[in-house]
Amino acid sequence: MDVCPPVVVHPPESDGGRRLTIHGARVGIAYSLFDVLDFLHCTGLPAQDRAVDDPELIEWRVGGPYVWNSTA
């Protein structure tokens, strides 16, 4: 049985921001990897214990943690 990661970073939008959802709830727009880490910290998820490319923590849709423009 597959378990979905709690965090989803959606594809880049035209302004370079990426919508971020945690446990299915929209939490905001991230404009950098630092924003993603800040959102994780504010919600209590253990980002410091795991890599941002850990598929059990974050699902990166269209590109990974270093893609921040809509031409990906």
Automatic annotation (TrEMBL):
<protein>
    <submittedName>
        <fullName>Uncharacterized protein</fullName>
    </submittedName>
</protein>
